[in-house]
């Protein structure tokens, strides 16, 4: 019979072994793997800064990012956006079209070559998975919808969601989009009128609200006030999550987000509120159909999803159930709101600083619409506006990069990318590469899109604001429509002038944004 001492000793040995195993595993991931991947890439001529234990280049990048003055010059946009993607400005000029760097212990191959990007993200997409490091960050804000899923679950959700984003389904939403713009536009009209015809307004908070309201009205319909609250909470969460990952502790303490620091607790509180608002909206609609108050779930996005969903809340089940409605509403809310807000924001800046394009765009809007409300049939005829939006997304793509991890070795022409590598598609850097765009790559010139994307650049993947491969943005048409509605409504009413108080300093939290807001002078027409 074992004595209690023997039992205790056995436990001690077991505990020590478990700890030792964990330590070894960690060292393997934090030392062996980075150096192994570095060696394989170095042999193939891919270079980069040296691996720094645990932190990689995080500290260097944050310091570089913080070294820039508050206000950067406007005009040359082919500078690898150093305040947004410091890694590109630091290493592309030094190492060429591909380089290796570390985000914490995560080894990343940065690619500014559209052909390699096509081979990897489109032709070899089956050998990729989403980056766990990245999903741990972004998943806190967007939840677990389509964006995060892969494999069969992704394919079945994507099939279910696709019909809601077909051109025909979207046409019915233009009216709600237009309604979403009216509140801020009226506010601006009043402010401008009271100030005697022209006024300086920080349009950032207003465009955020406008974009949120457009989505609330199309997606949430009758519950649009819940949508508003969700938008505000998600913005808070995004800000705090991104402050968290600037802290080196995040990168070395496993489970850092579970430590009850003030900020961690705040993020959790906001998340809990988002969840309860989503539950209220979903339960509310189901309740009113069940008790006969309503005959259907409604024809907005939430209603359409609810009609298609099966009962049950199983996130892992293959079918499109209530958990899928929940998570995809949370995802679209964030994915659809900040992107559109941020593009319209930089679009306004570009129009204010390029009066010749502003004039031409206004002329087109007035020819197509006069002073009528924007409607679905007018949108395809706003061609110049489409070019201006594309040129804005080229220079200020809300998602400046897209990352995936290889699940097996991938051979791309003469380059062998080993399993376990994170591949970072350097979208904003490819958008700024003169090899694809020509000598005027640093200028804002919507004219380059006169013959569409094919006429603007020399490689189809050199312009990828909506991503590339099967996970291409589901809401790209939806977003383009919203952007046209916003820009057209604005151009009908105001002349935009640059403000001397604007400080150009784009940053990245989960999408590009101006660090110090976006004051623009609006003058009534
Ligand atoms: C107009 C601005 C927008 C831009 C620039 C944009 C950009 C992107 C990008 C780059 C991706 C791919 C991410 C990746 O591969 O990791 C993506 C995915 C996605 N976007 Fe958008 N987006 C926009 C608007 C919208 C809107 C308005 C919605 C919905 C209402 C939306 C919903 C989605 C969804 C659901 C996915 C995931 C697709 C999948 O994984 O299959 N987006 N978006
Ligand atoms: C703008 O970009 C989108 C997405 O890549 C494309 O479908 C559209 O044709 C482009 N429009 C113009 C005018 O270039
Ligand atoms: C105007 C606007 O909505 N800007 C947003 C851009 O994206 C960041 C983060 O995703 C938001 O915090 C900004 O509010």
UniProtKB/TrEMBL annotation:
Heme binds at residue 473. It is found in: Membrane. SUPFAM superfamilies: Cytochrome P450. GO terms for molecular function: heme binding; iron ion binding; monooxygenase activity; oxidoreductase activity, acting on paired donors, with incorporation or reduction of molecular oxygen. This is Cytochrome P450. Belongs to the cytochrome P450 family. The chain crosses the membrane at residues 12-31. GO terms for cellular component: membrane. It comes from the Eukaryota. Keywords: Heme, Iron, Membrane, Metal-binding, Monooxygenase, Oxidoreductase, Transmembrane, Transmembrane helix. Its cofactor is heme. InterPro entries: Cyt_P450 (IPR001128), Cyt_P450_CS (IPR017972), Cyt_P450_E_grp-I (IPR002401), Cyt_P450_sf (IPR036396), Cytochrome_P450_Monooxygen (IPR050665). It comes from Ceratodon purpureus. Pfam families: p450.
């Amino acid at each position: 019979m074992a004595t209690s001492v023997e039992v205790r000793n056995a436990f001690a040995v077991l505990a020590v072994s478990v700890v030792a195993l964990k330590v070894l595993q960690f060292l393997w991931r934090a030392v062996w793997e980075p150096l192994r991947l570095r060696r394989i890439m170095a042999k193939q001529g891919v270079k980069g800064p040296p691996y720094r234990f645990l932190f990689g280049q995080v500290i260097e990048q944050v310091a570089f990012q913080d070294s820039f003055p508050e206000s950067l010059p406007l005009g040359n946009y082919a500078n690898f956006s150093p305040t947004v993607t410091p890694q590109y400005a630091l290493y592309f000029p030094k190492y060429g079209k591909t380089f290796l760097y570390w985000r914490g212990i995560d080894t990343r191959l940065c690619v500014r070559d559209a052909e390699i990007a096509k081979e990897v993200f489109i032709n070899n997409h089956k050998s990729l998975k989403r980056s766990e490091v990245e999903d741990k960050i972004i998943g806190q804000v967007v939840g677990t919808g389509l964006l995060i899923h892969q494999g069969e679950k992704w394919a079945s959700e994507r099939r279910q969601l696709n019909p809601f984003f077909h051109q025909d389904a979207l046409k019915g939403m233009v009216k709600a989009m237009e309604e979403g713009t009216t509140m801020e536009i009226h506010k601006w009209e009043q402010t401008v009128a009271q100030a005697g015809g022209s006024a300086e307004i920080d349009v950032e908070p207003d465009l955020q609200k406008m974009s949120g309201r457009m989505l609330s009205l199309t997606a949430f319909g009758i519950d649009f006030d819940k949508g508003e609250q969700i938008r505000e909470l998600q913005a808070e969460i995004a800000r705090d999550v991104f402050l968290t990952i600037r802290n080196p502790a995040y990168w070395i303490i496993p489970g850092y987000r579970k430590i009850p620091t003030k900020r961690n607790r705040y993020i959790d509180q906001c998340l809990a509120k988002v969840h309860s608002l989503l539950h209220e909206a979903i339960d509310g609609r189901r309740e009113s159909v069940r008790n006969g108050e309503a005959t259907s779930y409604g024809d907005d996005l939430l209603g359409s999803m609810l009609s298609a969903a099966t009962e049950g809340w199983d996130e892992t089940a293959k079918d499109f159930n209530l958990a899928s409605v929940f998570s995809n509403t949370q995802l679209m809310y964030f994915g659809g709101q900040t992107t559109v807000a941020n593009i319209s924001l930089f679009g306004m800046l570009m129009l204010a600083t390029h009066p010749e394009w502003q004039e031409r765009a206004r002329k087109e809007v007035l020819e197509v619409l006069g002073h009528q409300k924007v409607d679905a049939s007018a949108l395809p005829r706003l061609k110049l506006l489409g070019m201006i939006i594309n040129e804005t997304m080229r220079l200020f793509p809300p998602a400046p990069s897209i990352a995936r991890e290889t699940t097996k070795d991938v051979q791309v022409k003469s380059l062998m990318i080993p399993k376990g590598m994170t591949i970072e598609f350097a979208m904003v850097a490819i958008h700024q590469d003169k090899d694809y765009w020509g000598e005027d790559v640093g200028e804002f010139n919507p004219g380059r899109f006169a013959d569409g994307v094919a006429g603007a650049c020399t490689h189809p993947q050199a312009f990828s604001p909506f991503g590339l491969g099967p996970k291409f943005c589901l809401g790209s048409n939806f977003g383009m429509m919203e952007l046209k509605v916003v820009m057209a409504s604005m151009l009908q009413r105001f002349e935009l002038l640059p403000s001397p108080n604007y400080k150009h300093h784009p940053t990245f939290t989960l999408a590009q944004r101006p660090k110090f807001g976006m004051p623009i002078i609006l003058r009534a027409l």
